[in-house]
Structures are given as structure tokens and as C-alpha cells.
Specification:
about 230 residues, alpha/beta, Rossmann fold, four-stranded mixed β-sheet, 12 strands, extended
Amino acid sequence: MSLETSAARAAILARLRQHSPAFQDDLSAPEQPLPVTRLDDSESLLERFRAEVERLNVIFQHVADAEGALDALLSVVRAENASSALLWRQLPLHGVPEALESIGVQPILPQVQGAARHDIYRALNDVPLGISGADAAFATTGTLVLASGSGQGRLPSLLPPTHVVLLPQARLFARPEDWLLAHGAQTLQRARSVTFVTGPSRTGDIEMQIILGVHGPKRLYIIVFD
């Protein structure tokens, strides 16, 4: 750095310091702490979760029991005009493959491994619907937690254009911290991978406009049941 450059730099810094506001030496704590979001009962949890996911363009439904969840699932399948669906092997709702077959929809439980996996991906590329559970959901953000492992592959939640999540209400938590304290840490340790899903797939790279479904499902249904 030349002497002229060094002198110019010093002059600029001196002017900036001269016009910068002075920091307070005695910063004090606020008189009242910021309020903490409290979701102390199942009803408030559910309503906050509904508000958050609907803000994210999620199609939400709450039903009373497992039978209602199965009916709601079949309604979605019919509305999407799906002829086949990718499924988790370990869904939190019993009887899903049989119910799909009863309305003429082929349930597919994908097994992708070995050298033939690329051929399997291509064969499944046109499946219109994926059905999975969720290991947890967070009411304050509308986020779902999907832990991959035995019977819980990632394809149903990533490949089809429509993803349906079956969520028992007992798996709904206020915040990630509450889930981690309950059993989330154990889930993280045993899972091959963990995906956090907040609404349908989206990007804002195209002319600064939100586009759904660019890198994954463009429609997300969540069916919560007691």
C-alpha cells in the first residue's frame, strides 16, 4: 500500500468515526422481557399449527380418529385422480394399502438399493402421489420432521408432485426444543437422515417470485387425527 493510499484510507476512517453515533456505555436490560409464545393445550397447538401451514399453502384437515383419517386420505386420492401412490412401509395409520386397492389405486412400497436404483427411480418418476407419516411437527412454524429409516424412505415425500402426510396429534409440539426434550434426540441418533419440511417445495429465484414444486412436491396435504 502506497503512502498516498494509506493516507486516503486513514482520512476516510477518521471522517466515519467523527460522524458515527456514540454507543451507550450503560446499556440496561428492558423493564419487561419479550413475551413467550405459550401453547399449553392441544387445542391451541392445533389452531396455531393450522394457521401456520395454511399460510404456507398447505391443505390442512383435522379429523376425530383413525377411521376419519382413512376417509380423508381416500378423498384426497380421488381428488388428485391418482392411479398409484408411493407409501412408507411404517405408516401411523393401519390399512392404507388395502384401502387404496379397494378404490383401484396401486400402493407402491419402494425399495431402492443396489446398481438398479436409477432404473427404479425412472420407473417411479410418474407416480402422482406420495403418502408418509411424520415423526413430529412444530406448531409455531408449521414444520414437519421426517426421519428416514427402515420402512420410512424419502421417495414418497420427494418424488411425486403431491405429498400427503398422516400426522397423529400426539406428535404435534409447540417448538423444536419441546420435541428434542421429549424424544427428538433419540430420533436424530437412530435416523439415517432427517428432513425438515415447511410447506410445499418452493423457490424464489425466478424473477423474485415464489414458484411451488420446482425441486419437490408442489402440493402438500396434512391430515391430523387423534
